[in-house]
Recover the amino acids of this structure.
């Protein structure tokens, strides 16, 4: 594992632990969702650092691409106990809308919409994330696909070194 990948993975794991802690402690959603957004972005960047397409621009749109790549990796399929790559793709497919929703929490991706970091909308900021009652991705995280998504993240952080 290259030093860039190791650094991004280390920070992603730390962000993930803080996400779990804040969520269990019933902290405001903007805080734990912020750490969820950051950990997913960083774990994706960790993956891409040791590939032929390392992250270059420092943007925030990496996690959906990562999930798409993951759906074709045999070691991931094996790690999840799935029999075929088709089963893995079927496992990942319903998680993509959640991944998109998490990416959209970043201010640079959200644009004028809700984000977890700065008051919004950008052009006339009147709502602080701390005062926002519910973010669009929250219902997705508590539904059945959200349960699978969070279980996938647990496995991803546990098995990253074996999978990639």
């Amino acid at each position: 594992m290259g030093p860039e990948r190791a650094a991004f993975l280390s920070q992603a794991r730390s962000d993930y632990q803080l996400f779990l802690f804040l969520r269990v402690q019933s902290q405001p959603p903007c805080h734990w969702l912020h750490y969820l957004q950051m950990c997913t972005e960083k774990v994706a960047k960790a993956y891409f650092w040791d590939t032929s397409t390392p992250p270059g621009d420092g943007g925030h749109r990496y996690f959906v691409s990562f999930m798409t790549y993951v759906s074709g990796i045999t070691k991931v399929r094996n790690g999840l106990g799935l029999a075929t790559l088709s089963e893995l793709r079927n496992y990942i497919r319903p998680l993509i809308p959640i991944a998109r929703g998490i990416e959209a929490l970043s201010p640079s991706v959200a644009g004028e919409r809700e984000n977890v970091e700065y008051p919004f909308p950008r052009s006339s900021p009147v709502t602080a994330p701390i005062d926002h009652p519910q973010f669009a991705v929250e219902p997705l995280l508590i539904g059945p696909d959200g349960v699978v998504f969070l279980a996938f993240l647990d496995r991803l952080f546990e098995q990253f070194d074996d999978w990639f």
About this structure: The chain has one domain: 3-163. The chain is about 60% helix and 0% strand. Residues 3-24 form the longest helix (22 residues).
